[in-house]
Amino acid sequence: HPQPTTATRQIIISGQDISLDILANYIEKSATGYRPLRAYTGSLNSLISMYQGNADVVSTHLYDGETDTYNLPFIRRILVNHPYIVIHFLARQEGFYVPKGNPNRIQGWSDLARPDIQMVNREKGSGVRVLIDENLRLAGLSPSTIKGYDMEESNHIGVATKVLSGQVDVGIGIEKAARLVGVDFIPIIQESYDLVIRKTPENSALIATLQSILQADALRNELEAIGGYDLSHIGQVLDETSLHS
């Protein structure tokens, strides 16, 4: 039986960026009877949570070194035999956080293996951790040779603050946090931050609601006011599985 439209259906939106809090507000304000709950889980863990049936909308920024692309290789592997739709949300710059003036002259991944450099890592399961691990692998660098590899922070601000305080020489994260905290930023890659929604009959209205919110000016204007996002492809469908009856 279709649910009556007056019923409030709770949906879990998983991911860490503030843009998701704003998106959740728009879903709540839309007259579609959805009540979004936020889970602040990293990209990889969010996808696994969706695979297990515990999330309706997840955000991912997972870098695949083999294909030099974001998200789709991971989504296809993890959500095997799960119907889904992938919608592009925004793009962000990821890069190195360094002290003002970049005194250690850090330029690339190989610098993390220098004996005079101490880094701070992100938690396992986060998109940034995957970016770091993939690039170390591609550069042939063993984590055991990198000072600070085992020191983990659970968000961009925490990483940038460790650099600011002088506890570490370098961290990796998004540009906005560098600006907020006041450390220098060396861009490495523009990442694609995408939304994955389980494509089930009961989610069809949710998908339509999300698409109309992403295509409207109000959300885009609010995100542009925050700064640090590239919204030129917001709402574009990147991948979609067909529903099997």
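(the above was protein one; protein two follows)
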Amino acid sequence: KKLKIYPELTDNRTEIIEHVEILPDLLSEYKDRSGNPLVLYDYQCEIGNQAWKMGRGIIEAATAAGKTLMFTAMLKSIPIGTPTLVLFRSKTLVNQTVAEFKRYGLENVGVIHGESFDPNIIICATIQSAHNYAELLPKFKVLIADECHEFATDKSIKVFKKLTDCRYRLGFSATPWNIGDNVKKYRLKSWFGPIIGK
């Protein structure tokens, strides 16, 4: 702006993904741990809808906020067949989340980590195994990163740079950044965006 240079931007990403509104009863055909119909909390619905509306951003979600249910509801609200990468910091979290996804009826869920290679339309993976799915990175339309504060590394950013058609980039974390670490903070903001929900 100071130099009075105004670039023209061309967005070559694919179209915006149409999604259904996430309502409390979206997963009600499934049972909670007490055997009752599963009902989403209002904040889970609000955050999921806000995430799709904004397209990118960080959700500050404390421990026990029900992130996996949020992921599930969000993925159930977009068209089946949307190529999605869900990143985790450990294979244990990958396996736990895949089990929950399948429990709540998500289809086409694959797993990629050090001990497993089973790609599908939705891939739950560790960043450490990115070399195993590198050729798929330009095809993903959605990125969801659990504990996104772990992904401010050079290796992670090399992966993110290959997500050339990924319109939706959403990070979840209880502690997105440390106040004293501005490098980490702005790295995360550059790839995911600002905090869009708590």
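Reviewer note on protein two: The longest strand covers residues 168-173.
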